[in-house]
Structure formats: structure tokens, C-alpha cells
Amino acid sequence: MKIAKTIAEMKELRRQMPQKVGFVPTMGYLHEGHITLVRLAKSENGAAVVSIFVNPTQFGPKEDFEKYPRNTERDIAMLSAVGTDVVFMPEPKEMYPPKFNSWVTVEGITERLEGASRPGHFRGVTTVVNKLFNIVEPTKAYFGQKDAQQALVIQKMVADLNMNLQVVVVPTVREPDGLAMSSRNIYLSTEERRGAPVLWKSLELAQKLWNNGQRNGEQIRREMIDLIEDEPLARIDYVSVADTESLHELKEMKRPPLVSLAVWFGKTRLIDNKVLEDPA
Amino acid sequence: MKIAKTIAEMKELRRQMPQKVGFVPTMGYLHEGHITLVRLAKSENGAAVVSIFVNPTQFGPKEDFEKYPRNTERDIAMLSAVGTDVVFMPEPKEMYPPKFNSWVTVEGITERLEGASRPGHFRGVTTVVNKLFNIVEPTKAYFGQKDAQQALVIQKMVADLNMNLQVVVVPTVREPDGLAMSSRNIYLSTEERRGAPVLWKSLELAQKLWNNGQRNGEQIRREMIDLIEDEPLARIDYVSVADTESLHELKEMKRPPLVSLAVWFGKTRLIDNKVLEDPA
Hints:
The structure is a homodimer. The first copy, chain A, is of the alpha/beta class. Helix content of chain A is about 35%, strand content about 20%. The radius of gyration of chain A is 19 Å and the shape is globular. At the A-B interface, β5, α6 and α7 of A face β5, α6 and α7 of B.
């Protein structure tokens, strides 16, 4: 496994790789969710590149950029173990040199949900991912469904800007009690961790309501909120029942919606989502 | 010479081309300036792709998008004559389908000069050029020095977003009386055409003042303005003596500046510029 720390090194390593490359952009502090993406990248393309970069431009001024968990040694060991070919680990000043001044934005769908709660977040995401795609030139890039809106935004950017790769969205990997895997789960106290599966429970409730014929988005939201509010440590940021493409909130529904939510546990903000499914 | 009208066709033709491709993005209505770029693209890379696309997103609502001159038949004949390999001629709805919502912006240098006179202009330019670079995947792309700020903005975008090509800026081609070649020159009446070389004359004056030791940007501007105002049909939009990188206006200068200007003749807006040179 090779490690590139500069853009020039990464581009040079890419030139030496076979034509097909699968790419997994990460912020490190890897968990089984990331590793699932890397395994898929490797098996579908023959070669896998993983980036580890805690991207400062996607964090708000009051967010957790400084304290975002980092453990590069462990990350490298995990990536090596699953046959990663190249790890790209640039410093912030390599990606954002002085006088850096170019931005990629996706309008519309970025204004809702995470974009509404975290102004500027998606501009940071699309800009860094655009750069990473140009640096790594992957055949396919892999994103987790856990960040459902991010996956939609990246797909929109790739389509609108005619970028030459395929975006693959992979189902969320969960703990046995349903909690979506996330690097931020490490922030949770024992009590918070015990309450955190309420996100997944509320999504399962939404699916159950859908199965029972509930087609009113507001009703689904209300019952989810009631469930979450029974968990004393949970503080809701948003609960959304939205169109899977436009992310507009839905009242009466014909097709299964994207149900998503963000919930604070103390100083930790957790997100999760589910595209509801029609019963088989 | 092959012609691609859709993005898919262009990408397919690109796959069949040799590795090195020179690319010249144009808005058509070609003149000797464009042809100079195409000849260079062909000779430096072995293959040349030219796009003809009057890009709606770089025109303001009161600008000349609708009446911008078009003559596709003549353009194709000219491009064929100089050995162009592929002409890419998409319709606006091919480049901007419904729900198109992604934008590339360069901040800072786009706020001055043309950007100040034409709000939103450079967002349209960077977005379409970003798309075209992804569609054509050129080794080198060629731009005229006549649009000096545009060339700087494109170079900044390519550097900041780590795009995989080289931007080549080619000296302005001029009529015998010094008027910079431009598709918009066709708009000029006989009288306006007679007065239009005053742009170039004012740039030559700036060079003469520099040669004589003038290092005060405001003085150079003042003398240029006096010269242009002697031309009764000319109406100045701006005259600028600026740093060649930041485009900040300069008072006392140590290095040769970029001198640039925009001047109206009736309803036609002409631009020109010169990076002053130290005497040999």
C-alpha cells in the first residue's frame, strides 16, 4: 500500500495505476461503514484509492473541525488489511493553498436538511470532492447512504458538470442495535450511546406506518417526533419526510419518501435516514 | 472532421482520439484570432477539438446573447480548412438541461474589470469551461490574451480545482490598424469601426509612458482617458492599470502592469489589454 501526501505524488501514483480505480473519500477515523466501501471499490475496480482528509471548508465556525476524531495509524492499518492500493492524505494547506479562491456549488437541494442546519457545509463538500475527483480520476467513487443528501448532491454535481466517473451509493452499515456507524459516535457518553438507537427506531416506525398505509408525511413526522421525544437525552434538529430527488417536504405521498433526521445527544449531532420501501 | 452535437457523442469521439488533444473553446463566428489558437492546438498536440457554443449563462439579461453573431456554416468551413479533428456544437439545452443547478465560481479576481461591469459573467464562463474541460478532456486548452481576465480566471480555476490540463494563453491577433480581432467587431458601423483603433492607440500610449519612466498608474490612466475622449464616438466603461495577478488597481508601480479597458461604440462594447513590457 502506497501513501501520497501531496497532490503531485497522488497524480503520479495514479498514472502508474491500471485504468479502472475505485475511490473512497473519507475524513478518517474509519469504521466498518468505510471499510465496506473500500472492499466494494477494490472488488468492482481491481484497485482502490482512499483519501483521508478532514476537510476544513465543510465545517462551520462553531462546528467540530478541531476536535473531529483522528487516528491515522489505525486507519492505515485497517486500509492495508483490506487491500487498499493508495492512501491519499494531504495536509489542509496542500488542498487549500494561500489565495485559494475557487468553489463548486450545487444549488437547490443543498438548501434543505443538512444544508439548512449547516450553512456552507455542502459548498465545502462539493469543492473538496470535485478536487479529489480531479486528483484521483476514479472510475467509480463510493459514498455511504448514511449521508443521503451528500450522496444526492455529489451525484448532481457529477451529472451537471459532466465529470467522468460513476457515483455508487452503498447501504448504511449499522451497529447491532441499529445505530448507524459514524466516526462521531465516539463522542457519545455511555448514556447517550444507550439512547442513540432512537434514530433508527424512529425510521423503522416510519416504515411501519408506511406499510400500514399512512401516506401523510406530516403524520409520519409527528409520530417519529413523539417517539424521539420519549428519549430524554435526545434533542431534535430536524425530522424530514421528503421527495427522494428534490428533497421537498411532502404532505400527501404517492411514492416512498426519503425519511431523514438529525438529533443532538449533548454536544454530538447524529444523522440517519431511510428511503421507505413498498412492502414486497 | 467530425461534428459532435451531444455530450455523449463528444465523449465517445474523445475516447477514439489519441492521448494528446488541444482544445479551443469558442462562441463561434470565428476570426483569425480563433484560427491562430486552433493552428497552435493542432501543432502542439497532434489533434484539435474546437467547441462552438454561445453560452447563455455568461450573458447578462440586458446583454447581446440573442443577437450575438452566428455563422455555423462558415465556421465549419474555416475549421475544416485548418485541420480541426472534432467540432463540438451542443445546443443550450444539452449543456443546461432542466434542473441544472451546479456552478463553478472563482472569487476575488472575478469581482474587478469585466466582472464588475458584467455581474455573473465569470460564473457563466467558469461553469461552462469546467463542463467543456470534463467533456473534451484536453491536454492543453487555448485562450486568447484579448480576454486577459478570462484567461487569468480559467488558470485560477484549473489550479485551484486541480484539473488535469494546461492552459495556454496566446497573444491577441489584431487588424492592420491595431483593432483586436473580435466577433463583436461586426456590430460596428463604418464610423465606429474607423474610431475603434483608439483602444489599441491608448495601450500603445501606456507602453510609451512606461518606456519614458512613468510609474504612476493614475497618470497613465489619465492620459489614456484623455486620448480616448478625443474620439467622439467612444464612451469609456473602464480603463485599468492593475497588478497582473491580483488585478488590484496600482498607483506606484515596480513591475509592468496589465493595462486593460472597455469602451462602448454605440451599442457595441469593445475590450482590449496589454501587459506592459520593460524596454529590451
